[in-house]
Amino acid sequence: MPDFFGHIDKSWTLFLDRDGVINKRPVDDYVKCWNEFQFLPGVKEALRIMKSLFQEIIVVTNQQGIGKNIMSVEDLHKIHDKMLHEVANSGGKIDAIYFCPDLATKPNNCRKPGAAMVQQALNDFPEVDLSKSMMVGDTLTDLQFGKQNGMKTVYLNTNNVSLPPSEYDASYLSLIEFAHAVNANV
Asked: Which of 6, 52, 99, 157 has a Cα-to-Cα distance from 109 of 20 to 30 A?
């Protein structure tokens, strides 16, 4: 159990990746419409639990399917609107969603692990203290994003990809497992 769990209170902020953390990550594809979006098991319950533990819950997601013209910004907003509705109906919350539509090959793009999305969040939520924030993700770029911005990092191994323990502060198999671990220690 990470020692920082005992220090978490309502002044902390939770940053979450989307694909592979909240919903099933499609293999070599993108979630292009709501019918393709599948919540991972326990996610709605996890967001309900974490609502009482964290000041803000913020999603930061790379969405280069837009840059590839596979989907539109409007398609993404429709998906996110329905996701937010389902989360709220389950008693959970997500305070904001920031996304980057840029291709990975675009110079000076806004994608993780770059800091563009965290800067947007800090502009909208100036009370966020990155030293009292956690980034939960399922990829190395998520964890690098967290570390480079001074956050604690939590790796969710939802895709059966092993990453070296030096890349994260804690590891769980699912968002609900993480939520229960935090809840048991605050």
From this structure: 157
Read out DSSP for 127-182? T--GGGEEEEESSHHHHHHHHHTT-EEEEE-TTS----GGG-SEEESSHHHHHHHH
- Displacement of CA 74 from its chain's centroid (Å): 20
161 pLDDT higher than 90: no
Q: Choose between 17 and 5: higher pLDDT.
A: 17
Which of 58, 86, 87, 24 shows the shortest CA–CA distance to 146?
A: 58
Given this structure, which CATH class describes domain 3-161+172-184? alpha beta
Q: What are the boundaries of each domain within the chain?
A: 3-161+172-184
- DSSP annotation of 23 reads B
- Residues involved in catalysis: 17, 19
Decide: 52 and 33 in contact? Cβ < 8 Å: no
- Model pLDDT, residue 94: 98
Whether residue 79 is predicted with pLDDT greater than 90 in this model: the reply is yes
Residue 131 near residue 11, CB atoms below 8 Å: no
From CA 145, how far away is CA 151, in angstroms rounded? 8
